[in-house]
Amino acid sequence: MERDDSSLNLVRDALEMILIFDRTGKISYANTAAKTKLEYGSELCGRNISDIFPNDFRVEGERFKTEYLFGSEIRSLMAYRKNLTCFPVEAKINDEADTGMYVCMANDALEKEHLGKEIAQVKKEAQLAMKVKSEFVANVTHELRTPVNGVLGNVRELLDVETDGQKQKTLRTIERCCDDMNKIINNILDFSKLEAGKFTLEPRKFQIRDMLDYVKANHMGKITEKGLDFFMTVSPQVPEYVIGDELRIVQILNNLLSNALKFTAVGKVTVEVLKTAQVNDRIELFFIVIDSGIGIDKADQDKLFQSFSQVDASISRKYGGTGLGLNICKQLVELMGGRIEVDSEKGRGSIFSFSIWVSVTEQEAKASFATDAVRTYSFAGGMSNSFDDSEKSDAKEYGTPENQEALSKNLSKLILCVEMENWEKAEMFMDIIRQLTQGAPREVGRVILKLKMAVQKENYDKVTAGFEELKTFLQG
């Protein structure tokens, strides 16, 4: 009974006009909207549908006549009020054959048009407000940058001539504060541009390994200061030159590395770059940044890529930051056709990974395909240290019986090393497995990457889960 009452309330309070009439055209029910808009009030029940739609319905004998085609299609009709003034409506009238009743649902077309104009006006005003806000932020950040750079320039001049150790230390602190302020200003400006949809990438040809050396040099001071181990590896399949927005790729890596170094007191930080796909002259690059820092709870990981968000307030108090960096990284990565992800556990460090698509020249694209084949072949030809003599170079081609057998053997060796907690040797077998799956479907490649990251993190549970997932792919 409660459900029926609830349904009647919904119909009664609906914004559209609802009328129910029988085969004679007599209206037996009208909701509040119909009574109000047609200006009949309670008198509407008992009137004929031809009084409301005289152009489309007429009474002949004991039934109404109409050319109206009943059904779910919305049609334009002219509705008449009690005072015989009219207005256009968009109506849908269904023939309820089982009950011999008809249900009419109609919306005031003029109100809809007016509402559409209001929505357009609100949208226009919102866009204008966004533009004003973006221009305000751009102007403010520019004005802030000028005095900060002025202080920074004077501090560096003083550092060149100051010999007193204590004063140099103070000047270094001021210099670092100015650098941090510039980073915050740049983040706010980038966020404003991204939010306003005015951010554009500027692709150009650059040498990717030189770019990575530059990124490493940017963080060498912090690495040395903390005494952390730092490893950076680039897959041989990554071409020497690519075409992309070098500045923004550096920005993403700098942000991820800054966070890794900020939250890691002891241990190591690792950066890896892999080529995971190629379509004509476009290649997908996959970047992995691994640290052994404080880690992040699973429940808090969704907050990481939100604007102005930190995992909790204590993070901001202890380590600083605006909470904009990772949100900007996410948007930049998506602009480059990729995505960014995090895999972390509290107290066990974090793995941030992101993929982007960049271009290569036609000549380099062909060379990349050829080089991949040569490298895979030379690896397969020199696998005698890791494989039995019975295994031939056919193992290099993914999907062949020799390849599947080699994969199976090395996966068994990998899981044995993991069981024995010999993680160094496990990484060696993981590299062999990765070479053996060159050319595999993208789904397999993703599983291999997850498995590799789990081995690097020395995470037994995730290694075994990845192992089982990969076995399922291979057996399928």
Question: Which key phrases capture this entry?
Answer:
five-stranded mixed β-sheet; five-stranded antiparallel β-sheet; Heat Shock Protein 90; alpha+beta; Beta-Lactamase; Helix Hairpins; 4 domains
Summarize the structure.
Helices cover 51% and strands 20% of the residues. The chain is an alpha+beta fold and 476 residues long.
User: Largest sheet, described in full?
Assistant: 5 strands, antiparallel
Number of domains: 4
> Architecture of the largest domain, according to CATH?
2-Layer Sandwich
Residue share in helix:
40-55%
Order of strands side by side in the largest beta sheet? 2-1-7-6-5
Structural class: alpha+beta
Specify the overall morphology. Answer: elongated
**Low-pLDDT segments:** 316-320, 372-392
Beta-strand portion reads 15-25%
What do you see in this structure?
- With 476 residues, the chain is an alpha+beta fold.
- It folds into four domains: 110 residues, Beta-Lactamase (2-Layer Sandwich), CATH 3.30.450.20; 82 residues, Helix Hairpins (Orthogonal Bundle); 159 residues, Histidine kinase-like ATPase, C-terminal domain (Heat Shock Protein 90, 2-Layer Sandwich), CATH 3.30.565.10; 94 residues, no CATH class.
- 51% of the residues lie in helices and 20% in strands.
- It has 14 helices and 14 strands.
- The strands form four sheets. A five-stranded antiparallel sheet has the order 2-1-7-6-5. A five-stranded mixed sheet has the order 9-11-12-14-13, sandwiched between helices.
- Helix 6 runs parallel beside helix 7 and helix 11 packs antiparallel against helix 12.
- The longest helix has 53 residues.
